[in-house]
């Protein structure tokens, strides 16, 4: 497995271009299964999760081709079986369930299982599909769904931790081909849900209200091929903003949508980071003094759980006590022990991490355990004195396009060590 060798202590300076959003493109790719006509998707990030979703679509019978950052999928004839060996490797692949059920009226998809950040149930996905008329059984590790007819209805999709992003995607993609009107209440409001709705509408769907807690979908008989450009990755943009902050540098972020980053920008300003809009770009630099802050992760438009780990790295460098409360996933603190190896002082109390910050971090070998935890360790390595080796970076390659190249262009001393 590849690792990253980082010589820390260099403030990052320069410009960075943000790629297309991983969490937008995955459900959009799944939605191409809804039509037999070709779909063309632009600004597709070069990520292992995206390639993997391509493999899944391929295994279902779709033709998939990449050219630069453009992806073409043609799902002329497909089958409805999502195999365990593929699905288990990427939790996001659950979003094929809605499109398969809508197009074929039956689907058999392996249960995705949990992952390092929590158990990640899919009860809300199944509740929503059942409400649309699907009969669903769980058997031998597979979700077996069939529906002679899907019919629009009102569905309340709020759960224990609030709305569900991929659950909303699954219900939306099933309801577009249902008879009548579906109203999803307590829908996820994430920009990625809006992007999916835009793509579906370009395919001929009739969806209103995406981006708000109430989404209204009027079913249509069939969808056609469409062309779409994926939104920029707000989590990648936030990660680069934090790279400027933790290294004490100055980075101009191009291609992000600052309006998707309001909660992050607000917290960073409170923490003493300067962020300014320069036309379409966002200029980020550390102010004269960092301030401790308290952060609670929440569904959009709150502070994103996907930036919690990276924010913790900044807290480690901030004199005083900062608190992060994780309200979305029950065990998303696997970076805490590894940050401790770099000298951070963090304790966990229930859903909160208490960070006693302000000590200089010093480089050490660390182990990446999930995507955003890996990003937090890379940021810590860039800020630390000495050399940090981040092992198991395949997690990072799942969600950050060429992160080492982008950081190197900003002056980061970062090198990929290929496993021989
Ligand atoms: N939940 C349920 N029941 C369900 C579904 C979810 O209780 O049926 C709970 C989850 O256990 C969690 C909360 O609801 O406590 C929110 O989970 P959600 O379903 O929104 O997560 P997801 O859709 O599976 C997506 C992203 C995650 C991101 C979350 C939250 C993709 C491919 N994944 O996951 O991204 O953290 O939304 O914003 O879109 C990442 O990129 O690193 C990542 C993990």
- Which whole number gives the mean pLDDT? 96
Secondary structure class reads alpha/beta
List low-pLDDT spans: none
| Multimeric organization | single chain
Enumerate the strands of the largest sheet in spatial order, edge to edge or round the barrel: 22-23-1-24
Distance between the termini: 9 Å
Query: How much of the sequence is in beta strands?
Result: 25-35%
Specify Rg, calculated over alpha carbons.
Answer: 21 Å
Which sheet architecture does the biggest sheet show?
4 strands, mixed
> What is the tally of beta strands?
24
Bound molecule types: uridine-diphosphate-2(N-acetylglucosaminyl) butyric acid
Describe the structure.
By secondary structure, the protein is α/β, with parallel strands linked by helices. The chain is built from 14 helices and 24 strands. It has helices at residues 22-31, 48-59, 84-87, 97-104, 123-131, 165-175, 191-202, 234-247, 262-270, 308-316, 335-341, 371-383, 394-399, 403-409, and strands at 3-7, 13-17, 38-42, 63-67, 70-74, 81-82, 106-110, 135-139, 142-146, 154-156, 181-185, 206-208, 214-218, 227-229, 250-254, 273-278, 281-286, 294-296, 320-325, 345-349, 352-357, 365-367, 387-391, 413-417. The protein has a 4-stranded mixed β-sheet with strand order 22-23-1-24, covered by helices on one side. Strand 12 and strand 13 (214-218) form a beta hairpin. Helix 4 packs parallel to helix 6 (165-175) and helix 8 (234-247) runs parallel beside helix 12. It starts with a strand and ends with a strand. The structure holds uridine-diphosphate-2(N-acetylglucosaminyl) butyric acid (EPU).
